[in-house]
Amino acid sequence: MSDSHCAVSARNWWRWPVGALMGISIAGCSPASPLNLLARRDGIEVSSSIPYGRGPRQTLDVYRPRSARSAPVMVFFYGGSWQAGGKEIYPFLATALAQSGYVTVVPDYRVYPEVIFPGFLEDGAQAVGWVRQNAKTFGGNPARMILLGHSAGAHIAAMLALDPRWLGALGLDPRRDIAGLIGISGPYDFLPIRDPTLRLIFGGADRALTQPITFVRGGEPPTLLLTGDSDRTVDPGNSARLAAKLRAAGDDVREIIYPGVSHVTIIGAFAPALHFIAPVLTDVDRFSTHLSERAVSGAAEKMQP
């Protein structure tokens, strides 16, 4: 083993224990997983398994800061390759966001084999519609709603924000009703599809209408794209290509690539004990502040004669 290899290994000493911890937490699918046991809940009220539809996977959890008054709202869609996942895995993320002042909503949604594309998008749209109608009850401001997603959840969030069909079916317009989009390690431009199961889920290998990047026209909600350069699950080029297309369309987009961060550790970095991995929560806060300043500036311009 060379000296240079030893230096790299020492510099990235945290990858193995953190990867193992995240694997236990996500595979465990339980509020008792390590990251959730360490999550702070002081000052937060949690309302669990509120129905937004009729099915068993059409419920959501709300994490509300007790001090919330017209607070920004985060709607978080988790990943799982459109085949797995559950809101009970993510109290560590939801409590971190709520501690930062966000009314945070984590919906479940139907996955394969119960549904294929676009069933999970229809569920996502229904959840967003519920949040739009009920945010004020939890101290949130529906006009400050941000869609946030990781992995397959980032695909769902991006499709809802960029393709107006899904929210349009509920009388909503993403350009008007979504304040911002935050995608974390998301697949936005992943054709052709080679995995046989994903081909079944998306109805073929090369359907452009399944890709968020297809729907960039200009005028999309402000967007923050976060990824790690060590992601071996979703090619970071997905974020680069979507950012480039949004930029070319004149949209407000920010792209951040974290060195040495993987597909799993980027989401784990929301947990207070793992903030050292990457400043994801800080960057989310900065983006939210940017959206607020943008909204104030836009309102001031409208008031000018």
Plain-language structure description:
The chain is of the alpha/beta class and 305 residues long. It has helices at 3-11, 15-28, 34-37, 91-99, 119-134, 152-162, 165-168, 174-177, 196-202, 237-248, 265-268, 280-303; strands at residues 44-51, 59-65, 71-77, 103-107, 140-150, 180-184, 223-228, 253-258. Strands 1-2-4-3-5-6-7-8 form an eight-stranded mixed sheet, with helices on both faces.
Please estimate the helix content.
25-40%
In terms of quaternary structure, what is this?
single chain
Give the overall average pLDDT.
90
Low-confidence stretches: 1-11, 27-32
Task: Sketch the topology as an H/E string, one letter per element.
Answer: HHHEEEHEHEHHHEHEHEHH
Q: Tell me the total number of β-strands.
A: 8
Question: What portion of the residues fall into strands of 2 or more residues?
Answer: 15-25%
Structural class: alpha/beta
> Which outline best applies?
globular
Spatial order of strands in the largest sheet: 1-2-4-3-5-6-7-8
User: Biggest sheet, in brief?
Assistant: 8 strands, mixed
* Distance between the amino and carboxyl termini: 70 Å
Radius of gyration: 19 Å
DSSP summary: helix tally? 12
